[in-house]
Amino acid sequence: MNTNDLIPASISLPKGAIHRVPRGRGRRIESLRGSLWVTIDNDLRDILVNPGQGFSIDRDGDTLISALDDANFVVLEPASAARY
Question: How big is the CA angle at 16 (ends 30 and 54), to the nearest 5 degrees?
Fold first, then answer.
């Protein structure tokens, strides 16, 4: 995937800011710039997503994405939910 194509649709977060994804199960987080710390309600894992990496949300509940650096990322919908 050419991530440059995603930059216009990306979410920008300054270092220390948090973005909430309600009921995120099935969505995928892709970091374009900056490191992200991802936490999911009732999940004990600490998930780190570095630039060029992604993480698929695999649990119910709200997901919090925290910027460890100034960051740009996208939250992609599951393929089955895409509308054409």
Answer: 10
